[in-house]
Amino acid sequence: MRPIRRDDQGPAVAEIRSILVNLELLAPDPGADRFDAATEHAVRAFQQCRGLSIDGRVGAETWRALNAARWRLGDRALYHSVADPLVGEDVRTLQERLLEMGYDVGRADGIYGSRTARALTQFQREVGLTADGTCGPYTMHALRRLGRKVVGGRPQWLRESDAFRQSGPTLVGKTIVVDPGHGGPDRGVVVTDGDLSWSEADLAFDLAARLEGRLAAAGMRVHLTRGPHATTAVTDLERTRTANDLGADLFISLHVDGHTNPAAEGVATYHYGTGNGATSTVGERLAGLVQREIVVRTGLHDCRVHAKSWELLRLTRMPAVRADIGYLTCAGDRARLIRPDFRDQVAEALVAAVQRMYYPMELDVPTGSIDVRTLRAAIEATADA
Fold first, then answer.
1. Most buried among 74, 175, 243, 297, by the most CB within 10 A?
2. Which segments within the chain are labelled E, that is strand?
3. How far apart are CA 179 and CA 227, in angstroms?
4. Torsions phi, psi for 36 (to 5 deg)
5. Is 116:94 a contact under the CB 8 Å cutoff?
6. Please, are residues 222 and 209 in contact by the beta-carbon 8 Å criterion?
């Protein structure tokens, strides 16, 4: 869909305004169907509190988030529909409530899938209700009566951390999906200088290819979400579906940034998280490792780690991060990004971060200390033996 923005008007704008009014982000104005300054301000506030990109426009992802925000837990009966699963804030609230009580719904992604239905059915069975996986008035009453069961940490963090501990420190046999951003007709950020031109899509794929080779040499099964000459754009939903279908252990999305201010520079890394504290803690750890390794090994300005609820991070069922590595619009960053040896440094930083993810916390090593060549040598030595 074309993003709805400032000065647009019509039924779609009226619907957006109605949702924002119900969320108490916009004052009521009967009959208004124009995307004015107040509406833009409300959209930005909504995007900020939901962990979305804050641009004041309603694109496809912001629209889906607004549509989901219509619902509060208890507004409607929730049930599992295979063909067309229910999506909404009420579903996410239910998932978080079940997580607090010790039931495994996976990630609180706001989608009423089979895992959520199984968790609710288990809860209903344990409290003596009809175990049908439908959240109606009686189930709501039981949920309100009962308190938190899990203590000593966030339950999903405990499950994710335990899975990593049990998988062992080696990278051999583990599966990772590397996602070069943009592609096809979507070139992302593009900068020209005379006869020379550089695009985010091309640089992101080059980084992904360098990372693919190094991770494969370390024993991982590596999949890319697109090739170098894709003819059609790949949506974020398609990228997450690829990772989920492969049952990947990790997901890393690679981007290059751009800004109207040429002074904007540096690297930032993102993991799943929302304004209310829900987060993928293992994803947060991976983001921290990626950020620190890139900063130390390349000298890029540290723009830190941030939580976002982008579908790319929220809908993946494994720890997932997105790294925005340098600004093509900044002369200093661009001079580095176009150098092959610099992109090699970035790839090696990412390999080191992935390896550290699998080290137990008590055996972790200082940032910048892993020599990626030793990982490859160890694999080769094992193969020769």
1. 243
2. 175-180, 190-193, 196-199, 221-224, 250-257, 267-272, 302-308, 320-327
3. 10
4. -95, -175
5. yes
6. no
Do 267 and 300 touch, CB atoms closer than 8 A? yes
CB-CB contact of 236 with 278 (8 Å) = no
**Segment 138-165, tens digit of pLDDT:** 999 999 888 665 544 456 666 666 677 7
> In the beta sheet, which residues pair with residue 271?
307, 321
Q: Phi and psi (nearest 5°) for 235? A: -75, 160
Tell me: the pLDDT tens digits for 85-100? 999 999 999 998 898 8
Alpha-carbon distance 313 to 96, whole Å?
A: 17
Alpha-carbon distance of 363 to 381, in angstroms, equals 23
Q: Which residues pair with 257 in a beta bridge?
A: 327
194 contact partners, CB below 8 Å, separation of at least 6: none
Instruction: Kindly state the DSSP code that residue 3 receives in the 8-state scheme.
Output: P
Written as one string, the DSSP assignment of 42-79 is: HHHHHHHHHT---SS-B-HHHHHHHHHTT--TTSS-B-
Nearest to 94 by CA among 58, 39, 42, 136: 136
- Tell me the sheet residues that pair with 108: none
From the number of C-beta atoms within 10 Å of its C-beta (0-12, 13-18, 19+), residue 369 rates as: exposed
Query: Beta-carbon neighbour count of residue 337 at 10 Å?
Result: 23
Read off the pLDDT of residues 314-366 as tens digits, 9 standing for 90 and up.
999 899 999 999 999 999 999 999 999 999 999 999 999 999 998 887 778 88
Question: Are 226 and 180 spatial neighbours (Cβ–Cβ below 8 Å)?
Answer: yes
How far apart CA 64 and CA 235 sit, in angstroms, is 14
Q: What's the chain's length in residues? A: 385
Predicted confidence (pLDDT) per residue in 14-50, tens digit: 999 999 999 999 999 877 889 999 999 999 999 998 8
pLDDT in tens, 255-306: 999 999 999 999 999 999 876 656 667 889 999 999 999 999 999 999 999 9
Q: What phi-psi label fits residue 248: left (phi over 0), alpha (psi between -120 and 50 degrees) or beta?
A: beta
Tokens representing residue 189 in the block: 């950020």
